[in-house]
Amino acid sequence: MSRSLFPQPPSAAPAFEQDVPVIFAHCDPAGIVFYPRLVEMINNVVEAWFDRLGCSFARMHGELAMGVPTVTLQVEFVKACRLGEVLQMRLHVQELAANRVSLRVQALCQGELRWQAAVTLVCVQLKPLQSTRWPPDLWQALQGAAQPLI
What we know:
It is built from three helices and eight strands; from the N terminus they run βααβββββββα.
């Protein structure tokens, strides 16, 4: 009997959703998504979410000289994803603090859970590389995304 890392469903609507078609580049020779590509999908959804919040990775790493490295990542693989499917990616804010955010990212296909991940990102300045508080405009946007939790 397997135990889920995520026993409780998210209580609030997703902060962000994005459809991701499974393409040939994601797959192994059997046509199943190769698990490292799933981790890339997590990062791509997080990047798109930050862009929606008004802080693209280009702005973040350039003008703001900051980043959001992953400090923890847990993934539960529920069912294989196959070439040609479309995954509905859902990002939920689980916890927000002054210098970090914990997220839950889920991938569904036609309403069926395929995999889910818990990821914690920390806000860092790039030089010197160290943890820092969210910039005020991004902090405000993050608080809006986490509103059901506050």
